[in-house]
Amino acid sequence: MPEGHTVHRLAQAFRSGFAGQRVRTSSPQGRFTDAALLDGEVLRAVEAAGKHLLLEFAPDADVPITSPLVRWVHVHLGLYGSWTFEGDPGFALGHAIGAPRVRVGEREQAQTDADAAGSTGSERRDTADGAVTGRAAWRERAPRDTVRLRIRGEHGIADLTGPTACEVLDANGRRALLDRLGPDPLREDADPARFVERVRRSRTAIGTLLMNQQVIAGVGNIYRAEALFRARLDPWVPGTDLSRGMLEGIWEDLSVLMAYGARTGRIVTCQVEHRDVEARIVERSRGTRQNGDEDPNVVPREKSFYVYHRQTLPCRVCGTTVRSTDMAGRTVFWCPRCQTVRSRRAGWSRENPAADWALPSESSP
């Protein structure tokens, strides 16, 4: 399942590709019948909240936000959902964001000039199988039968397949969705105090609470494992045992890590001085993939994480074997030596997390 930074990248892709345009909507699969009601409306705004995407539609750009004519398409990709983009050069951040999710991490491929343009100029040609290529190819591309929702704008199309949720919400439905979610570290309106207090009131293990979207929205298995390691925190410590300062530190760290992920499509949590220590990862049959893995200038995935998918390998910091086990239906990864304490061990300062967490490519993690 995509983590929160991926959905924020989706929101940015929709803002740059469709916001403010009168768009065409359809459901080739036939399972999203409300697509016909939205066809020809203006896609006015886009927001991400945790792992949820909300697309705001209205008959015209100047319809008041309080009008019952304003509706939101709510999409949750779940395990198998994905958005695929095609259009003019520079139309979207990537070719596809989301599934197939057999591999863990974000499946997102940068759109190459060849993908976007086919050949030069406005050239188009027909291939033997009838496919259209060239810069105008997307305008005549027929959707697959599995497409739940197609959105077509002035410069490209977006096809949604396999989502867990695809529905139309009114203002009350949108507010109910946002109210049941915990604060999202990537939203400007997030209140970290809500996260801190919800954790401190619960005797549930912090490793479980971080995956609870009603406690903190957008955190998935990778961010959970890595944030706990960076905090030197045992995943099984009850929330009631944690200090306010420690939880504020975890929030600040996640804010930095997830903001980097939203900018680049990559999760990188390992600091520079540790990356070449035991630079290995335990791959599944199809591997742990991230955006830009083929780019030699990005931090490779085997150097990106401290404990995630590093079970049976030595900890990069202390050399102890990293372990994994089931925790509330998901696999948790941790170092039994580095993460045995219940209070923050001296190490990385959290007073200015951006200062001691240099970011790759833009500076360097």
Write down the Rg: 22 Å
DSSP strand content: 15-25%
CATH class of the largest domain: Mainly Alpha
Backbone shape: globular
Element order: H for helix, E for strand: HEEHEEEEEEHEEEEEHHHHHEEH
Question: What percent of residues adopt helix (DSSP H or I)?
Answer: 10-25%
The count of helical stretches stands at: 9
Q: How would you characterize the largest beta sheet? A: 6 strands, antiparallel
Low-confidence stretches: 100-134, 343-365
Quote the distance from N terminus to C terminus.
24 Å
User: Which structural class matches the secondary elements?
Assistant: alpha+beta
Q: Biggest sheet, strands in spatial order? A: 2-11-12-6-7-8
Number of domains: 2
**CATH fold topology of the largest domain:** Helicase, Ruva Protein, domain 3
Summarize the structure.
By secondary structure, the chain is α+β, with helices and mostly antiparallel strands.
Question: How is this fold's topology laid out?
Answer:
Elements: H1 4-18, E1 21-22, E2 24-26, H2 35-38, E3 42-49, E4 52-58, E5 71-76, E6 82-87, E7 96-98, E8 107-108, H3 113-117, E9 124-126, E10 132-134, E11 147-152, E12 156-161, E13 165-169, H4 171-180, H5 192-200, H6 206-209, H7 221-230, H8 244-264, E14 323-327, E15 330-334, H9 353-356
Antiparallel strand pairs: 1-3, 2-11, 3-4, 4-5, 5-13, 6-7, 6-12, 7-8, 9-10, 11-12, 14-15
Helix pairs in contact: 1-8, 5-8, 7-8
